[in-house]
Amino acid sequence: MFKKVSHVVIFSFFALACASAQAAVILQYHHVSKTLPKVTSVDASTFRAHMQYLKKNDFKVIALDTLIEGLKQGENYNDKTVAITFDDGYDNNIEQAAPILNEFGYPYTIFVNPKLIDEQRSYVMTWEQLKTLSQQGALIANHSAQHDYLHHRLDGESDAQWQERIRADLQYSEKRIEEELGYSLKYLAYPYGEFDRALQQLVQDMGYVGIGQHSGAVGPDNDFTRLPRFPASGFYADLDTLSTKLASLPFHIDTLTYDDTVTTKRQPELTISFKEKGFHQNQFACYVSGQGRAELNWLSAKQVKITAKQELGDGRARYNCTAPSQQASGRYFWFSQPWVITSSPAQ
């Protein structure tokens, strides 16, 4: 799925046959609550408004496994196709979200941390509650054992020891889900949306699909170790902006070139090579977290290098790139590149 060339990872994609024919969107939620921090929450009325918007505008909401397995087979989805996901398995998912989803008849997936469930943490659902939701049609999938930063190395830990520890974590989690619910999807939502190339390689070697928190539409030629989702909670819950994201399209990307998503570089470089563009070059723009527009250097008619104009601080950051489609009026291509800026390459 990807190869290492001179310490640079190059991820290969191919153009979609038609920009509007094979695009879909995955939404990501956490809490459905009006009392918990808004940054990861929507209240029930806002969540209902999201579902009503999907219904009113004829979106087809399908199960995540249907979407992913279809994408792997190159299936053409209507461009109003959506999958709904939740991270962490909070108890308000069954109390607030499930009744609304059942009312609309929408399938959904919950990514859980089995060790936290086994420890009977008060804020997550029990296995019995998850069984109830599973019997109602919800899918339950892997979010790691206890929501650790999976790409972090422990002090003195070798690469081989790290691989063994993370492999055991994912296998334990998947086994517990299968023991309790009777199936194993082998889908992993990365905790905090963070991953590096070593983690992607391990996920691929284990036969998992890796799912992030960076934004963008999905198509059959996405890298299945880093599928994007649109967060729909907190600041991102506003329907004026969410409606634009629901109508987004994946860029026709041939290759992405960069060192790694987890990096000590304060102004990481990303080069995108387009298979075909489908947009006017002067309307292509990328934005850097907390900075505004990125520096763009068009290396050729179909290749652009993107760099932050200022140094990024420690922590998560993104380059979000968009451009209006020439063929689909009022719709935008959308791509997000996540970064984790760190002072230590061993973190």
Descriptive key words:
single chain; 347 residues; alpha/beta; Immunoglobulin-like; six-stranded antiparallel sheet; six-stranded parallel sheet; 21 strands; Polysaccharide deacetylase; hydrolase activity, acting on carbon-nitrogen (but not peptide) bonds
In words, what does this structure look like?
With 347 residues, the chain is α/β, with parallel strands linked by helices. It has two domains: 21-246, Alpha-Beta Barrel (TIM Barrel), CATH 3.20.20.370; 253-341, Immunoglobulin-like, CATH 2.60.40. The protein is 26% helix and 27% strand. It has eight helices and 21 strands. It has helices spanning 44-56, 64-72, 92-104, 114-118, 127-135, 159-181, 197-205, 239-246; strands at 2-5, 8-12, 25-29, 31-32, 41-42, 60-61, 81-87, 109-112, 139-142, 187-189, 209-211, 230-231, 253-258, 262-263, 269-274, 285-288, 292-293, 295-300, 303-307, 315-324, 332-341. The strands form five sheets. A six-stranded antiparallel β-sheet has the order 1-2-13-15-19-18, with no helix packed on it. Strands 3, 6, 7, 8, 9 and 12 form a six-stranded parallel β-sheet that branches. A five-stranded mixed β-sheet has the order 14-21-20-16-17, with no helix packed on it. Helix 7 links the parallel strand 10 and strand 11 (209-211). The protein is globular. The model is unreliable at 1-21 (pLDDT under 50). Pfam families: Polysacc_deac_1. GO terms for molecular function: hydrolase activity, acting on carbon-nitrogen (but not peptide) bonds. InterPro entries: Glyco_hydro/deAcase_b/a-brl, NODB_dom, Polysacch_Deacetylase. One of its GO terms (cellular component) is extracellular region. Residues 80-282 form the NodB homology domain.
